[in-house]
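input
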Amino acid sequence: MHNIQSCGSLSAMTTEHNRDLEREERLKVYELGFHFVPTLSEDDVTVKFSELKSFVEKLGGEFISEDAPKPINLAYDIAKTVKGQKKWYKNAYFGWIKFTLVSDEVAALEKEVKNFDSILRYLLITTVRENTVIGGLRDRNGRNNRAADSEEGDSTESTQDLVIAPEGDVNLEDTATEAPADISVAVEGEEN
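output
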């Protein structure tokens, strides 16, 4: 009788292990970029950022990296309707989080984000685990950071032309400086 209980316990452990492996296989990497409304105080931004991250944690997501929201000037005015009144914003707090999540949970996360009052606009994409930085990005004030090399004929790369390679042994000469082509927007009910 003791042996039967041991086998039952082993069987339960094997079943649990198999469930964990299946979950790992369904995990995808996502990045959520967002704008918070500029009417929040600095303290409120910190609280709202924590609340947003808690949506991911509640669904079993694990964080890879993040950038806390910082004030930016928007390239164009963005409208948000709250309680039947439309307001236009010229600036916002921009931040992002990169995380892993089971693809079945994305719809639930997106529902939470859509209903989050502090969000002005957001974008949820599937991405890769590695960090990628593309040279010549615009700064947080919407200006292009790339130096005007063409006037001086200087073809040397500025410090803005950086690529952060994935961890491990990587030949940086072979690393692309453009974003991966397989990044796509996560759409409810659509598989990538």
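quick obs: Confidence is low (pLDDT under 50) at residues 146-192.
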